[in-house]
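User: My advisor asked me to double-check a structure prediction for Cytochrome bc1 complex Rieske iron-sulfur subunit before group meeting. I don't want to rely on an old file, so could you generate it fresh from this sequence?
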Amino acid sequence: MGNRDMPEGRPRAEQSAGDGVHGAVSVADEENPFADPGVPPHEHRIQDIDERAAKRSERAVALLFTVSMLATIGFIVSYLLIPNDKSVFVFPLGHLSAMNFALGLTLGVALFCIGAGAVHWARTLMSDVEIADDRHPIEASPEVRAKVHADFRQGAAESGFGRRKLIRNTLLGAMALVPLTGLMLLGGLGPAPGTKLRHTLWAKGKRLVNMNTNQPLRPEDVAVGSLTFAMPDGLAEHDEDFQNEIAKAALMIVRLQPDDIKDKRELDWSHQGIVAYSKICTHVGCPISLYEQQTHHVLCPCHQSTFDLTDGARVIFGPAGHALPQLRIGVDSEGYLQALGDFEEPVGPAFWERG
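Assistant: Sure, here is a fresh prediction for Cytochrome bc1 complex Rieske iron-sulfur subunit from the sequence you gave:
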């Protein structure tokens, strides 16, 4: 409101004082074209004049902090008790992981209730008196520092933190429990792999099954110069852990002329020229699927790492770090190809160098 809107014959400062406006006010003039309207009159809240209303607000804040504590406990219980593979239907989102849904819901409620409780506390119970203060240099004088300390102590006293024990205790409880959610999430990194990466489903007596026909392989099923992919007997695509297991156990079967095999161990671990090597490239774990019949080289399609199957599957080109692991094979009493043990080194990308 400009000066010309003011009633004539009454100074601005006098009008402000008479209307109950507190704080410094100024009149617009040529040097200061923008007048300082001052601070509007303070209006008391119902909690300031009615202790019963203040108690209701106190109980509401305490309830929010208590709900936060219960939600945090729910987060921990959900993490410990809900299976990883359990799903739940949530409209309209569809099927979701039950654990993820419970963790997100409980953590969201815990954090929201702390924030909502703090906001409700500040708006209804803490002092809301506005104080106008003149600007001052950045460097605080001893007097200003003393005033800040005094204001802080006054604000602490007006907040009721020391007097309203119910709010204080429930807030401390909520703030103490919420960090536990972070500690629980550390467990989501998963258990230590232990020796799982060093072992596959292959074991002595485990038959080699054609991945295309799901039938056990006989030596006569593998022609010279052909490439066949195999998996352990008993592993099926509908199994829950199929992807994890096939990523370690996938085999490629190639039949060579025994005279073409240069590496003695490769020859000893083969059967009638049939060799079994891991299908997983030792660079970044891509499945190897390209075979050069004339040279007996296999090629990874991702980064062109090339392995010589006549010489222990050693790397002859590309970024792969080491040769493909070989599986020792033989035949069982019924004439089917079988493993004579597990791989002697971990399959996959660069794991052997990392230990």
